[in-house]
Design goal:
Distance between the termini: 35 Å
Strand content: 25-35%
Structural class: mainly beta
Strand order of the largest sheet: 2-3-4-13-14-15-16-17
């Protein structure tokens, strides 16, 4: 059983711990990467979204008014208007592809009506209206005609037909390359690479264009087809190499202008005649590194030489073009949400965040049996989400966790789905960070709404702990109980046996290059010891940029010291990394891959795996494709899996088991399971003090006594126990019970008081204009009850290392901030609070804050 030795939730159990760390508090396993400037969210969770609406908005405005964010394609805007009339707080994010034209998806509608792409029905000298200039599309490296062709010719002789594929569309235009003079489009029906000259056959000459005669040497290039792969899914040239049309616009500049003119509520054609409000823009498939390889490779500058979207020195034409586009859009929409639509989107200078499609994995997320491990499995997705939420200043962070898993309740056409665990795991793991969560709807399930989204958490209500049943005719009650978990009380924490993960038990030696670089080596990079930067200790490893630029992500790498693993055992690998600029990093440890995002500041990363074979290995950090400086430090490897998480909220808690085996977690106090509506038998309303979690499963529980999160200043309001002073019972401290009023002056203070009912005591410390430290202990004659940490930061310690003793060491960094802890005294016997540092600290006791100085309080 794992004891949940964590703040505001659990009994701090009495197993031996390191003197310098509370259970579950080793810095090298803390991958939340928060610091003293990181504030907890003031939003109430969960936040529920409905995007990627494959089933459309057929559920109707009333049913869809339950959601916090709606993200349908453009043709659903009139439905959004009716939804916002029911609940004006619902946000609408307009969805469009920045990667490729997808208007072919809306053939049944007018050709000039936007669907999921900019309207396109004609080819002209400039992109405007329903016209797209041929130079704004993205092409593979092309070829030339070997003789002149007429406007009606369907057999076209070319110098190299290997550049063309049957079934795809091409552009034909007069030389020189990149001019797009007299451009037209056509569909290829056949390719002959054996004749001399090579020959292609086409149909539909002048497709959405005008067929024209072309001289010998005319350019023939095949359209890139975007991520969907459909022949009409033409890719946009969003790169920095995009040519300019007759109006002087690159494709990125044109798209930014088009979105502004069509989404602006004053003159936009989409909004004319209705009152829908667009709160944000959501892009589909806008990966930062979106490049081509193989036989067909991009020619982003249209010089007939393949470049794959990457310059000779590693310049990312595509990613930098997107960043430029995002900036142009942010200038036009300074106050709207602008969201990247892929797990590999970046846009850290302008976007609010990304959509993590398929959360919490990448590859097999639609499968009834999701695989959560691998290069882009749970560890990778959680780490990327954390980076995106920590590096969005000054814009409001927004990350959308979009699950597409098949469940027993919502199988989406799959057969023999036996469990809802995929939902519980994806939902609870999204709440480990401040993510908005949603499940893709479909024609099978227009309104995928779960009991866990709306719960009555009023302890005085007769339906306390009950899920609110969705009522398609009137969702008022459901809307009133959204966000039921309330505000988060902490960042996520891992739950593990501290003895198992002591630094001395690491299977890797010299993981921080404290004395030398022994065991470390590099290929195409230099690896040196750097004493000017480190995340712990005196040094780190500095990795240079590429000696010779390498576009292959895995042929340039750093190797670390050897370690041994045993087949079938689970391991936890952790390290700290920093780069000179945001980059991806692929890691292989013991044959287990992971892919992570490394920003320009120290970031802790945790990767877990089960060894597939026994042997001696070296960790490998692949640093190809992106040539940056990078630093590595604090590299550890432990036997065991540290992927059990908890996060507390005002009205509940989520516990997540992200390991491949079952875990029992001791909660340390009593919680309730949600009393469900029949969707899932696990929601049975039972009171629990521990939870059994199968592999990759989670528990979402209701707190019996609600707590309150810090306010905007970071301070915790005094608890609601403000009862009038009453005589203390015999044996009490002699001070009036109830919470005091905290002084707002320059004096560092320690407050201690007893609640007027029960045996709960509270300790709070208040800082001055400098950093103040308060260290000490609470000691009792009998066993202490639960301990609740309040508004603590990552370096603060409140540990019950013995059943009758609490050790605390608190540092308050922000002037006027308040933090501390609550604890349950035994029903009989004595207790003593002592401040060891500073030794002469004034202690203010009881509701009237009576002063005691220079000694303990009994």
């Amino acid at each position: 059983m794992r004891p949940l030795a964590l703040p505001a939730l659990a009994l701090l159990v009495a197993f031996p711990i390191a003197a310098d760390a509370a259970p579950g508090s080793y810095a090298y396993l803390d991958d939340t990467n928060v610091d003293s400037s990181t504030r907890l969210s003031n939003e109430n969770f969960p936040k529920i979204v409905l995007t990627e609406v494959l089933g459309g908005l057929g559920a109707g405005p009333e049913r869809l008014s339950k959601y916090d964010v709606i993200g349908p394609k453009a043709f659903g805007i009139r439905d959004v208007e009716r939804i916002q009339e029911i609940d004006p707080e619902i946000r609408y994010h307009f969805m469009i592809s920045a990667r490729a034209y997808q208007g072919y998806l809306g053939r049944a509608r007018k050709v000039c009506e936007p669907t999921i792409g900019i309207p396109f029905n004609y080819t002209g000298p400039a992109s405007q209206g329903c016209t797209m200039w041929a130079g704004h599309w993205l092409y593979y490296a092309g070829t030339t005609t070997t003789s002149a062709i007429s406007a009606s010719a369907t057999a076209i002789p070319v110098a190299d037909a290997s550049k063309i594929s049957a079934g795809q569309y091409i552009v034909i235009y007069d030389a020189p390359a990149g001019s797009f003079r007299n451009a037209e489009h056509a569909k290829v029906t056949g390719v002959n690479r054996t004749s001399s000259p090579n020959r292609i056959t086409v149909e539909r000459r002048g497709y959405k264009s005008v067929a024209k005669a072309h001289p010998r040497g005319a350019i023939v290039a095949q359209h890139d087809t975007g991520n969907a792969g459909h022949a009409e899914n033409w890719g946009y040239n969003m790169t920095l190499s995009s040519p300019r049309d007759a109006n002087g616009n690159t494709m990125g500049e044109y798209m930014a202008k088009w979105l502004y003119s069509h989404l602006n509520e004053n003159n936009g054609i989409l909004l004319r005649g209705n009152g829908a409000r667009i709160d944000g823009i959501y892009f589909d498939v806008d990966n930062h590194w979106s490049y081509s390889s193989g036989r067909h490779r991009w020619d982003t500058n249209n010089d007939l030489v393949a470049d794959g979207g990457v310059g000779a020195n590693g310049k990312n034409f595509w990613g930098e073009g997107l960043d430029r586009f995002y900036s142009l859009l942010r200038d036009r929409f300074p106050d709207k949400y602008i969201v990247g639509g892929a797990r590999r989107s970046r846009g850290f200078g302008a976007l609010n965040g990304i959509q993590a499609e398929g959360w919490p994995v990448t590859n097999n997320y639609r499968s009834p049996n999701v695989n959560y491990v691998g290069r882009e499995g749970f560890d990778s997705m959680l780490q990327r989400m954390t980076v995106h939420l920590r590096h969005r200043d000054p814009y409001v962070p927004y990350v959308e966790a979009l699950s597409k898993a098949a469940t027993k309740l919502y199988p989406h056409g799959h057969r023999n789905v036996t469990s809802n665990a995929a939902f519980r795991f994806s939902f609870a793991s999204s709440l480990l960070e401040d993510a908005y969560y949603g499940q893709e709807n479909s024609s099978h399930h227009l309104d995928p709404w779960w009991d866990e989204y709306s719960v009555d958490v009023d302890p005085d209500s007769r339906t306390f702990g009950h899920a609110i049943r969705s009522n398609p005719a009137d969702e008022t009650l459901v809307r009133a109980h959204k966000g039921w978990l309330g505000r988060p009380l902490e960042h996520r924490r891992r739950v593990y046996d501290a003895d198992q993960f002591r630094a001395g038990k690491s299977l890797i030696n010299n993981g921080g290059a404290e004395q030398s670089t022994a065991g470390w080596s590099g290929a195409n990079v230099s690896v040196v010891r750097d004493t000017s930067r480190s995340v712990e200790g005196a040094a780190s490893l500095r990795v240079s940029g590429h000696r010779t630029y390498d576009p292959d992500s895995k042929s340039t790498y750093v190797r670390g010291p050897e370690f041994n693993v045993t087949k079938g055992k689970e391991y936890t690998f952790t390290f700290a990394a920093r780069a000179s600029e945001m980059r991806d990093l692929i890691v292989d440890v013991g044959g287990a891959p992971g892919q992570f995002l490394v920003p320009n500041e120290w970031t802790r990363i945790v990767q877990t795996f089960t060894a597939e074979r026994s042997g001696t290995f070296r960790p490998v950090f692949y640093v190809g494709r992106e040539s940056t400086l990078m630093w590595l430090d604090a590299v550890y490897l432990f036997e065991g899996n540290a992927n059990v998480f908890v996060r507390e909220f005002e009205n509940g808690v989520v516990v997540v088991n992200a390991t491949p085996h079952a875990e029992v977690v001791d909660l340390g106090e009593t919680f309730r399971r949600i009393q469900g509506t029949g969707q899932d038998p696990i929601n049975n309303g039972n009171r629990v003090t521990s939870v059994w979690l199968p592999a990759f499963d989670a528990a979402i529980l209701v707190r019996e006594t609600p707590l309150r999160a810090p306010d905007d200043s970071g301070s915790i309001p005094p608890p609601p126990d403000q009862s009038p002073s009453v005589p203390d019972s015999p044996g009490d401290s002699g001070f009036a019970c109830g919470a005091p009023s905290f002084k707002n002056d320059s004096t560092a203070s320690v407050y201690v008081w007893k609640a007027c009912s029960g045996n709960k005591w509270s300790v709070r410390v208040v800082s001055t204009e400098r950093v103040d430290r308060f260290a000490g202990q609470v000691h009792t004659a009998n066993v202490l009850g639960s301990v609740t940490r309040v508004a603590l930061e990552k370096d603060d310690v409140v540990a019950k290392d013995l059943p009758e003793k609490i050790q605390f060491d608190l540092r308050v960094w922000v002037p006027g901030n308040t933090e501390g802890f609550d604890f349950e005294m035994p029903s009989s016997g004595w207790g003593c609070l002592r401040i060891d540092s500073p030794g002469d600290q004034e202690i203010l006791v009881g509701r009237t804050a009576e002063s005691v100085r220079g000694g303990p309080v009994n």
